[in-house]
Fold this sequence. Notes:
Layout: H1 7-19, E1 24-28, E2 48-52, H2 58-68, E3 72-75, H3 82-87, H4 90-112, H5 116-121, E4 123-129, H6 153-172, E5 176-181, E6 183-185, H7 194-203, E7 208-211, E8 217-222, H8 223-236, E9 242-245, E10 250-252, H9 253-267, E11 278-281, H10 296-302, H11 310-323, H12 325-334
Amino acid sequence: xxxxxxxxxxxxxxxxxxxxxxxxxxxxxxxxxxxxxxxxxxxxxxxxxxxxxxxxxxxxxxxxxxxxxxxxxxxxxxxxxxxxxxxxxxxxxxxxxxxxxxxxxxxxxxxxxxxxxxxxxxxxxxxxxxxxxxxxxxxxxxxxxxxxxxxxxxxxxxxxxxxxxxxxxxxxxxxxxxxxxxxxxxxxxxxxxxxxxxxxxxxxxxxxxxxxxxxxxxxxxxxxxxxxxxxxxxxxxxxxxxxxxxxxxxxxxxxxxxxxxxxxxxxxxxxxxxxxxxxxxxxxxxxxxxxxxxxxxxxxxxxxxxxxxxxxxxxxxxxxxxxxxxxxxxxxxxxxxxxxxxxxxxxxxx
Length: 350
């Protein structure tokens, strides 16, 4: 697995080690949003190994394949924050596109040398995003055949990576699959994204920024449900196929922030409603209006269902941040203090 020290990746690592008999090799560069503390429970286990490495390093990736001889690859390593991609796109192009190319070539070289039976069973799962599809109007949902129309540097880089993966299937026969998921939330989420940032700001009685008028809609998926879905796709999915993963939990951004305020007012009352902290700020450039996932293919063909709806998942998420200040407070102090990201600045010319 690549990117296993990130938010979704660490959830997948924990699921695979704790709920299956899989042996997991986690390859992660450990950029700002990665945190090995999210994997502390696995650290000394016999079925978990960690390799600190950059997926853009072809020699190192080849060595990882040679040493660990994986039966499958789950590719989650990516720069993933839209706002940061607007501020500076270089890392997104390098990791998400060039890194995926390097990993595909390393996987192809390894796969081609496998005995026939192992080669037939090998799988490469590209974990992507619904943002590659662009923006929906007020009705309808993304399906696996929705044309790609990315809006941000982040989503464009993920779309490019998906196209590379598809091409390696069509040209070389590498047994790949792609998953496109909706917005994830849950424990161990780096506090730059909407839900963890809002929880922490609300606990600290700080303004709760909402872009535009808060009417942008996202489909929310509890991260542990996503981990189960990825395992199901990896083990049961068909090479060459795409599977959309969504929780059928559409909410406007404003409704999400208001729900967090309600949860915190209920479990940590202060005598004043936290909704008073909501502050509307200028919208993100190129902000997609609405995302919604149709997960019928995954549900019907592979038998996966989300176990948590938005209310149950949010309650567990809020409780986790209340109970785990020692995880997020150092990040708040030393890595990201909650400042606004994603503003377009004037280009610098030579």
